[in-house]
Amino acid sequence: MITIAIDGPAGAGKSTLSRKLAENFGYIYVDTGALYRTVGLKFLNLGFDTDLSCNISEILEKTTVDIRFVDGQQRVFLDDKDVSDDIRTPKASMMASAVSAKPEVRAFLIDMQRKLAKENNIVMDGRDIGTVVLPDATVKIYLTASADARAKRRFDELVLKGEKVTYKEVYDDMVQRDYNDMSRKIAPLKKADDAILADTSDLDLAESLELLIKIVNEGK
Ligand code: DC
After folding, report:
1. For residues 184 and 97, what is the distance between their CA atoms, to the nearest angstrom?
2. Which domains are delineated in the chain?
3. How are beta strands 73-78 and 81-82 bridged, if at all?
4. Contact 110, 104 (CB under 8 A)
5. Does ligand 1 lie within 6 Å of residue 131's CB atom?
6. Can you name the residues that pair with 139 across neighbouring β-strands?
7. Nearest CA to ligand 1 atom 13
8. How does pLDDT run across 188-204, given as a tens digit for each residue?
9. Largest interatomic CA distance in the chain
10. How far apart are CA 11 and CA 191, in angstroms?
11. What number does the ligand 1 atom closest to the CA of 34 have?
């Protein structure tokens, strides 16, 4: 199977570009951040905050997370309910980052990710795909952009969806999330030694996609 691993910080354009890249090559697109968001939502629904002072394993034992593909689009299910839209709030983002630092949560989600990669040609995006989940991926890309460029894109996205947020809130959340994701002990966000660096700070969507297609064509 051909596996394209795309890692990088929040707001670098990973999901949009990975989806388009997958379409271009006829592969399926797997957004692993959605899985961490789904687990985060479970803990939010139970009333916990990002301190997560609870028995995580016990809660995970009573939790099911599924990925299903509807018309080729990934949907995520929490305890059999489609939560694909509910996971896209600033609160759910912060909770996803918090739960993702817990080894129990990472262990809970890793087999599902590897199984998908074993059975399909895929583009999979996340934080640890090239380093931990698929260390033998066919092509690894580390996609990044300046914090300013990333916060601006994420802000525009949220405003378009009608969320009431300020640019400063989005920027501060993003910097905090980068710090959490890069400094955690287990599977921190970092570039795999053999990943190709793609910086999209000064590229628009079409140019970024063109760059990624070129990297994949040269690497596969
Ligand atoms: O890609 P995203 O913003 O939807 O991810 C949400 C959070 O999930 C992110 O802050 C860190 C975590 N995550 C992770 O730890 N490992 C992954 N492979 C994907 C996401």
Report:
1. 10
2. 3-219 (3.40.50.300)
3. antiparallel
4. no
5. no
6. 4
7. 33
8. 999 999 999 999 999 99
9. 48
10. 16
11. 4
